[in-house]
Each structure stands twice: as structure tokens, then as C-alpha cells.
Amino acid sequence: MQGWERQVAETAQRFRALQERLSSLSITETSGDGAVKVTVSAAGLLTDLVLRERWHSEPLPALAAEIMDCVRRAQARIPDLLRQAMFETVGSQDPSTHLLLAEAGKRFPEPAPAEPRQAGRPAPDSGSDWDEREFLEQL
């Protein structure tokens, strides 16, 4: 096997190892109040969704917005996850590494700032003395 053939074979092997590693990685994000927890794959697909019971009393649009916010925040962490996995398996010198990371950054950008929360539902760590979780647990 010539030098360039060996190099191509080694690069292909490193990318196969990267693909296997990425297939087992996931990212989990939780809402500020812990009521929504999502897990996404390294490809950005939702793989798990956990809702605390208190959502039964929330309007569906609020629930949907909270889920989507968690998904977007999880997906925004994918480029860093890919960067670490790629640098450890393929290396930082391969030009395709930088192309793939740039594409991941475009596909999974940082989420826009969250919409203002509805009145009557304090934001996590808002300084309010009222703790709705404690109230709901007493019901």
C-alpha cells in the first residue's frame, strides 16, 4: 500500500470511529424550574422527553414553548460536543473537521433569548418568595 492509500484508509477509519462515538452521545437540557427535561442525539434529534406533573395545569402553548426552548438549548451545545469528539478522533488538522464544525454551527445556532415569561409564573431565580413547586406539592 502506497503512502497516500494508507493515509486515506487511516482517515476513513478515524471517521468511522467518530461516527460510532457520535451515535452514542447525547445532550440533556432541563428547564429552569425542572419541569421539562429533553435529550437530543448528536444529530439534534429529540430522543427523550420528561415532563413533571405540574404541566397538566399549564396551557399547551406554554408547555410547547418550554419544550422547544430546552430542545434549542440542547441543540446549541452540539457543535461543542462535535468539536471535542472530532478533535479526539479525527484531529484538528483535517480540513473536513473545520467544514463539519462550521456546518454544525449553522445548523444548531445559539438560541434567541427566551420570551418574557407569563405573568403569575415567576422566572426561575427571579427573587420571588413564592415557590410554585412547593405549593403544587402540597395539593
SSE series? HEEEHHHH
User: Looking at the structure, what is the overall shape?
Assistant: elongated
Helix content: 40-55%
For the sheet with most strands, the description reads: 3 strands, antiparallel
Blueprint (SSEs and pairs):
Layout: H1 3-23, E1 26-30, E2 36-41, E3 46-51, H2 60-76, H3 78-89, H4 95-107, H5 132-138
Helix pairs in contact: 1-3, 3-4
What would your notes on this structure say?
This protein has 139 residues and is an alpha+beta fold. Helix content is 50%, strand content 12%. The protein has helices spanning 3-23, 60-76, 78-89, 95-107, 132-138, and strands at 26-30, 36-41, 46-51. Strands 1-2-3 form a 3-stranded antiparallel beta sheet, with helices on one face. Strand 1 (26-30) and strand 2 form a beta hairpin. Helix 3 packs antiparallel against helix 4 (95-107). The longest helix has 21 residues, at 3-23. It is elongated. It starts with a helix and ends with a helix.
Quick recap of the structure?
50% of the residues lie in helices and 12% in strands. It has helices at residues 3-23, 60-76, 78-89, 95-107, 132-138, and strands at 26-30, 36-41, 46-51. It has a three-stranded antiparallel sheet, covered by helices on one side.
